[in-house]
Every structure is written in structure tokens, then in C-alpha cells.
Amino acid sequence: MTPAVTAIWRHPIKSHGREALEAVTLTPGTTMPGDRVWAVAHEAAQADDSAWAPCTNFSRGAKAPGLMAIAARYDEAAGTVTLTHPERPEITLDPDREGARLIDWTRVLMPADRAASARVLRVPGRGMTDTDYPSVSIGNMATHRAVSQKLGRDLSPVRWRINIWLDGLAPWEEFDWIGREVRIGALRFAIREPITRCMATTANPETGKRDTDTLGVLNTWGHQDMGVYAEVTAGGSLALADPVEVLP
Fold first, then answer.
1. Which strands sit side by side in the sheet containing 88-93, from one edge to the other?
2. Whole-Å CA distances, 175 to 180, 200, 223
3. CATH code where residue 21 lies
4. pTM given for the model
5. I want to staple 44 with a disulfide (CB 3.0 to 4.6 A). Which of 24, 115, 119, 213 is the partner?
6. Taking a C-beta distance cutoff of 8 angstroms, is the pair 77, 51 a contact?
7. Range of the domain at 55
8. Do 199 and 149 belong to one domain?
């Protein structure tokens, strides 16, 4: 099997929904278009719309597992995001102008013992990824299957909130790419580091309930990593079935 792209995802509002894509155009030194455009700062956050801030400032699935069951559709022309959740009515809103509606919609999903969502932030030109550099996340479906096999049941890859999924590789092969460049379709990526996982991945993305010790099973390999962070070094279009090549 020739290694190739099998799925492309973006998450318009950080930790508040995912959206599958068939194709996207990426630019060097930037995050995926439409990915983590907005983030929901909680009441204890020390973050504003002037610069990137660490994930600890935001409402997220690690603390509020119910958020993991949100799906999203981002209408870039209209500037609106439509959100769905099994326990909430569908809602369409402009996060720049209707942050209060978003916070009200998610209120029942937020644990009472955690900092409450307070405001929606957007840093122009910068997706609010978990890295302090503009990153795109890449996952290996063979690695995902290895985790599922060790657990003895199928897991949805959506748990990992990866941007680009690849198949046709050996399990864990992506970690050998760190410090190297990879060509995917017309694009080139510099592979920077593994993605260390948190409690968000223990929640079922269909229900928003914690049901799997994903961190425990990862630790049987001696780490809590799944997927890698990469930087776009040569831009262009990316689409499903695009081939993958590790560069010398």
C-alpha cells in the first residue's frame, strides 16, 4: 500500500468541534486554514487577542469531556460556525460577534468544578494550536490501529484531533521522521516533535463521556504520544489520496 492521505480535519473553534475536509490549501509558516481560528478563554485565563497563548488558558476537552462530542461546519464566506452535539440543539453563530451565545450553548457541557468559559478570542493570522509555533498535526492510522488492538476494541481516530491522517505506513513510523522533511502531495512539512496526549482523548467523540484509558495504553509503549507536530515549509494544495514521501 502506497502511503497516502486518508483524512483531513480542521477544528474551527479550539476544542469545540471538528470538521472533515476533502481538500485544503496550506501556506508556509501558517496553521491549517480554518483550524483553531477561535478559542474560548475561561474565567481564570491570562490571554487576549494580541498573541498566542498556551492551552491552559482555554476551555478544552481535557477538563470538559462533553466538548469532545461537538461537530462543526465552518462557512468561511459568511464567517459563521454551525455546531452540533448529541445533547444540544444545532446552533449557527458568528464567534467574533456572538461569543456569549457560544458560551451559553456550551454551559451545560462544562463541569461545575472547573473554571467557567468567559470569552471567545481570535488572534488574527494565527490558529490557536497547542504549540507556540504555527503547527499542523499529522497522524498515522497504523499507529492508531495498534492502540485499538492493544485495547481490544475499535477507537475513533477523531479522539486524537489530528489535522492530517496518513495510511500505508508502519506503526509508529512517524516518530522516525522527527527532524526530517516529508512531502505530502505538493506540500513539504518539517516534522518537529511528537504530540504528548492529555485527558481529552479519554472521551468518546460520539458521546462526550470518558470511556477509555488512552493514556494508560500509550504508556505501555513508554510514552503518552500520538501523532507529530509539523510546520509547512512549502505550500500548495492537499487532498485525500495524496501520496506521502519522506525526503532525504
1. 71-75, 80-85, 88-93
2. 10, 21, 12
3. 2.40.33.20
4. 0.97
5. 115
6. no
7. 38-122
8. yes
